[in-house]
């Protein structure tokens, strides 16, 4: 099941600690839980820009990021706050 990410929650240092989509029962979901969901192939998460979905992936260093492209609007750091 795909889950759309529309916002993030950051700590005082600017690190993303949770992801969310206001109004969804699973939101907010901690970064650690999202990481486990993706690695365990239980859920996929994405950011949608117009008609295009950009899926969140786990990097070799266990960081979360959207697929690489030239658009910066789908960058997780640029999403609004929860």
Describe this structure in words.
This protein has one helix spanning 31-39, and strands at residues 2-4, 7-10, 16-20, 29-30, 44-49, 52-58, 64-66. With 82 residues, it is mainly beta. The chain has one domain (2-78). Strands 1-5-6-7 form a four-stranded mixed sheet. A three-stranded antiparallel sheet has the order 2-3-4. The protein is globular.
In brief:
The protein has 82 residues and is mainly beta.
Mean pLDDT: 90
* Helix content bin: 10-25%
Which shape, going by the Cα principal axes? globular
Termini separation (Å)? 22 Å
Query: Proportion of β residues?
Result: 35-45%
Number of strands: 7
Unreliable stretches, pLDDT < 50, 5 or more residues?
none
Number of helical regions: 1
Which features does this protein show?
4-stranded mixed sheet, 82 residues, 1 helix, 7 strands, mainly beta
Write the layout of secondary structure elements.
Elements: E1 2-4, E2 7-10, E3 16-20, E4 29-30, H1 31-39, E5 44-49, E6 52-58, E7 64-66
Parallel strand pairs: 1-5
Antiparallel strand pairs: 2-3, 3-4, 5-6, 6-7
């Amino acid at each position: 099941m795909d889950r759309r990410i529309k916002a993030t929650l950051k700590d005082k240092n600017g690190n993303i600690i949770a992801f969310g989509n206001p109004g969804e029962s699973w939101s907010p979901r901690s970064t650690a839980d999202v990481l486990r969901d993706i690695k365990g192939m239980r859920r996929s998460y994405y950011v949608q820009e117009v008609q295009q979905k950009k899926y969140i992936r786990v990097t070799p260093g266990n960081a979360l990021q959207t697929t690489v492209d030239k658009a910066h609007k789908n960058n997780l750091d640029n999403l609004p706050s929860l």
